[in-house]
Amino acid sequence: QVQLVESGGGLVQAGGSLRLSCAASGGTFGAYTLAWLRQAPGQGREYVAAIRWDDGLTYYADFAKGRFTVSRDDAKNLAFLQMNSLTPADTAVYYCARPRTRALYTADFDYWGRGTQVTVSS
Fold first, then answer.
1. pLDDT recorded at residue 1
2. Judging by DSSP bridges, how do beta strands 116-121 and 92-99 pair with one another?
C-alpha cells in the first residue's frame, strides 16, 4: 500500500515562493507518474502538473507554466513542486497523487496524499 505525504505548504505573500514535497512510503514511484492537483475553497480539484518518474517527462496546466516546476529525487523517492510568483488565486489545498497509468494527464488515480494548505496573501 503506497502512502503519499505532502509537506511544505504555508502562508506566503503574493509574489513569494513555496516548495512542496511529496514523499512516498510503502512503495516507489517506479515507472509511474506523480501528479500535483489543487482544490481551492468551493472549487473542484484542478490539475497543476505531473512528472513521469522514469523519463522525467512533465506536464503543466496553463496557469502553472513559467511559474511552477515539478521535479523528483529518485534516490529519496521524493517529488517536488516549486511554485514561484504566487498570487492569491493560487490559494488552495495541494495534493500529490499517483495515476493508475503512466499518463501525464488523467482523472484516474489510485493513491492520494492528504494535501497541504497553501495560502497566498495579497
1. 81
2. antiparallel
**CA–CA distances in Å: residue 28 to residues 2, 9, 17, 22:** 8, 23, 28, 12
Give the whole-angstrom CA distance, residue 50 versus residue 12.
23
Rounded average pLDDT per 10-residue block, the chain, 122 residues: 94 98 82 94 96 94 98 91 98 96 91 97 96
What lies within 8 Å, CB to CB, of 40 at 6+ separation is 46, 89, 91, 92
* C-alpha pair distances (Å), 113 with each of 13, 34, 62, 98, 122: 25, 11, 23, 9, 28
Cβ partners under 8 Å of residue 26, min gap 6: 1, 2, 3
Report how far residue 51's alpha carbon sits from residue 59's, in angstroms, rounded to the nearest whole number: 7
Instruction: Please tell me the predicted confidence (pLDDT) of residue 47.
Output: 97
Task: Point out which residues pair with 60 in neighbouring strands.
Answer: 49
